Amino acid sequence: MKKVIQFVTVILLFTAVIPTTGQTVDKMAWWKEARFGMFIHWGVYSVFGNVYEGVNVAGEQIHYDRRTSGYPSEWIMRNALIPRSIYREAAQQFDAEDYDPKEWVKLAKYAGMKYIVITAKHHDGFCLFETQHTDWNAIEASAAHRDLLQDLVEEAHDAGLKIGFYYSQNVDWMHEGGMDFIPELNNGTYPADKVEKYVNDLVIPHIQELTTKYDIDLFWFDAPGASNTNPTLAQKILDALLQSPVGNKVIYNDRLAPGFEGDFFTPENDTPDIPYNGYDHNKNWEACSSLNSSWGFEYEPDTYNAYNYTWKSGLYSISRILELASKGGNFLLNVGPDRHGVIPEPAINTLKEIGDYMQLYGETVYGTQKNTLLNPFEYGYVTQKTDADGTFHWYLHVSPAYWDEKSIVVNGITELPENATLLATQALLPVTLENNNLLITLPEMDCPDQYYAPVELVFSQTPQQVSKSNIRNNQIRLTPFQASTKDLNKDFIPYTIKYWYGRNAEMRFRIYLEKGTYQLGAEYAAWYQPGELYFTINDASYTGHYQATGLASDPNDFSHYISDDLGGLSITVPKSQVYTLSVKRNAEVPNVTNWIYVRNFTLTKSGSDAGFNSPGVQIYPTVIRITTDKYLYCKTFEVQTFHIYNPQGHCVKTFIADKQELKIDVGNLPAGVYMVVGKRSLHKIIIE
């Protein structure tokens, strides 16, 4: 009998990439070491600042701004349907009079960024560089009257930073033949012959100019999903890059066109929803995000917050750096200077906050690999390194929210480290080994860092691990990662469910429980109103009650999270076996304003049965046993990418499923236990 995996899911915003080997590995070395870079969106859209009062291409008088549109500022030409002639006139206000590339580089370097990527040409077609192939450039068409890239390239290299150019090769709203939907054509598209002429006469010559005049290290393509892309033309563009003077060293991303994987792939805005210890180690990826909700500058008369109130804090940004590094990825963090070349003050302040942290603890980020912990770390983020002599380092970034627990636990470690050091003070910390758990005692002091306090564990070689749950004080802690989930958002907070309000949202755990009575608890923050959580274990149902706590403005601030017994809820299991524990809420009517964030659930054994007979309790995802029929059957409600991991944690197969049932041949995989990881879903398959 075949077993079919079925999920309700959302569309992934990225695709898996298998990078090439050989020379690419050498070219990628600096990028893997860097882990953190600066993105800069700057152009004529910086003049508008996401506000437009005037006529559109239909001759209608309109008012357009962020409050009514919700769109980022760099798309204003298309979204407000601004005529080309009016948009060109705006370039006369793009003066760059306060542009100081040395200061930009100085800021990036202090923030701990190791490379810079700037928009040489965005979707409006405006070029920040001198070019012989269009007059729509900073020298001829704007009040700046200068090449805006050369000095930045030189300053970056002088400071020891790498630099790359973003170039919108497909979408171009200003030049005839630009791909995708064109405002001047009432959002129509150009025919194929004009697209080909655009590529041959503008894009390829631009790439030749950008790679001849400037000593760049990286090329960042964009908009691979433009409506009328052509793989033949895309190959010509790539050939121009790789045959250029920098072709032997330049690396490039996955956004040239569909089917062109590049050296690294680039999920945007959201943290990739991947296993807590990352993809297979051969995959290179970089997540990009902006310091607010727009990539380009958003203008307002009095305050930088008038329309764009979503400036990200230092805590948010540091959390993203650590989380992405822990999963083996880079973080490209964007700023949007104004028309004068001034980076907004809120962005500068946040970058300085980041820099203060990176100056102290950059060693826990640079050159690290995805963490190889078999079990989630509940207190923050984990990065790791292996020295040339085999010495192994784990860096445990502990949130102040958990400092009062006086100790932290690393699950499933079978040996003691040579030492454990609190990096803030260089103090050695006591470590004990209990039931294959490392218990690290924290010093009697306030948390030494307001963001995360790193603890370094050093082993003479890679330590051995076992897969198990965290059991201490007769308590099992269940994290969202260990669950199969439906209609839930795993946010950037470690293993946290965010915005849980839908009537269909569900978490489901497969877990071995010994006979006895358990007190159920949860660590959560709930906005506005109290509510109920509905638990089902096999055929028995229970209702737990949660309190209104109020949410912190920054979801990484755990001061509003509480540990609660859910109204004294307890469950009794009649015998020792594997159970399915399901958790839902708001079963009748969803309330989008009554959010709840959940970090974990707890099961505490109580009464005469207190205590566990086994040293560890295995957490089970959904199990599928494959015997004579060596196929895995899968279908989803929307397109989704899945990865199959072997017991060593390496990805052995990747596939994409949708509404049509897909038959996956696993007959070539050796017998054993494998994990199937998809968006918000985790399953175990046993091949016999």
Helices, strands, pairings?
Blueprint: E1 4-7, H1 23-27, H2 29-34, E2 36-40, H3 45-48, E3 51-55, E4 61-65, H4 66-69, H5 76-79, H6 84-90, H7 101-110, E5 115-121, H8 150-158, E6 162-167, H9 192-213, E7 218-221, H10 231-242, E8 251-252, E9 286-290, H11 314-326, E10 330-335, H12 345-361, E11 380-386, E12 392-398, E13 407-411, E14 419-422, E15 427-428, E16 431-434, E17 437-441, E18 453-459, E19 470-472, E20 475-478, E21 484-486, E22 489-490, E23 497-498, E24 506-513, E25 516-526, E26 531-537, E27 540-546, E28 562-564, E29 570-573, E30 577-585, E31 596-606, E32 619-620, E33 622-626, E34 631-636, E35 640-645, E36 651-657, E37 662-665, E38 672-678, E39 681-687
Parallel strand pairs: 1-34, 2-5, 2-10, 5-6, 6-7, 7-8, 9-10, 33-39
Antiparallel strand pairs: 3-4, 11-12, 12-18, 13-17, 14-15, 14-18, 16-17, 19-20, 20-31, 21-24, 22-23, 24-30, 24-32, 25-28, 25-29, 25-31, 26-27, 26-30, 34-37, 35-36, 35-38, 38-39
What does this structure look like?
Helix 9 (about 190-215) packs parallel to helix 10 (about 230-240) and helix 11 (about 315-325) crosses helix 12. Helices cover about 15% and strands about 30% of the residues. The model is unreliable at about 1-25, about 300-310, about 490-495 and about 615-620 (pLDDT under 50). The protein is built from 12 helices and 39 strands. It has 4 domains: about 5-10 and about 620-685, Immunoglobulins (Immunoglobulin-like, Sandwich); about 35-365, TIM Barrel (Alpha-Beta Barrel), CATH 3.20.20.80; about 380-465, Immunoglobulin-like; about 475-615, Galactose-binding domain-like (Jelly Rolls, Sandwich). This is alpha-L-fucosidase. One of its GO terms (biological process) is glycoside catabolic process. One of its GO terms (cellular component) is lysosome. One of its GO terms (molecular function) is alpha-L-fucosidase activity.
